[in-house]
Amino acid sequence: MESVDVVIANRLDSGAPLVGEVSRYIISAGGKRLRPALLLLICGALGYRGEQRFNLAAVVEFIHTATLLHDDVVDESTLRRGRATANESFGNPASVLVGDFLYSRAFQMMLDAGQMRVMEILADATNVIAEGEVLQLMNMHDASLTEADYLRVIRSKTAKLFEASARLGAVLAGSSPEIEQACADYGQALGTAFQVIDDVLDYDGDASEMGKNLGDDLREGKATLPLIAAMQRGTPEQSALIRHAVETGAAAELESIVAIVRQTGALDVTRRAAADEAQRAIEAAQRLPRNEWSEGLLQLAAQLLLRRN
After folding, report:
1. 2-306: CATH architecture
2. Mind telling me which InterPro entries this protein's record contains (predicted)?
3. pLDDT digits 0-9 by tens, 185-210
4. What contacts 46, CB < 8 A, 6 or more positions away?
């Protein structure tokens, strides 16, 4: 990861100082760096030790950072990772344009790999992510969403870059189609579980630990799985209250809605859905060669369910 950080720092150089300032602001805020770490773990498990693993790990982090910059503008977010968002600090125009820069820089860097398959995976991933963002926008304030609708969005918006990161490791290692698919399955399942747990924490987390405002999803009119499950399991009155809040984005009843989500067992339902995805990731990792790196993949999937921020 230190080598990845060196690549990131070097490739943030630009003739426009604001690019580096905004990019470093959001990247230096920390974060879990799961996507580049996943790519490195897959490369380790499959025996690839070349320098391109650092370059492509930086690429997926740039793509992820670009999506964060754009997301926060669309969602009008003010807090991320415990401090003001880039759009709050630098304004929406700077956030959007620097996000565009990071996307284009990522595509410059992926050329260094010299493999059309790498380009294909990342071009497909960025397109699917953008499609997921549009789907989520269309679904805002729609209280009739089903669990299938919800999963379709997060598998596009969040899990796709996890899937691409894992698949890239297999491509760099020159793996068989079967191993590449196992890596892709692992990444998709891990990314899905990660987002489902993230949605649990919006109603069962600690704002100071999470680094974002609790209830943000409700304010933005997002019908996430905890709310979908609570509407299915609650009384008609409880369901109507949640439905109204989703449709209007009114957070005035947030305390009551959090209580309903907890009382109806919706958080348990959501955690079980995350556990199913984590188990799917574990089963995919078991199709890889057994070594300390693949053991790390197994541990990552298992410990994801314990995260509190």
Report:
1. Orthogonal Bundle (1.10)
2. Isoprenoid_synthase_dom_sf, Polyprenyl_synt, Polyprenyl_synt_CS
3. 999 999 999 999 999 988 886 655 54
4. 169, 170, 173, 175, 179, 183, 288, 289
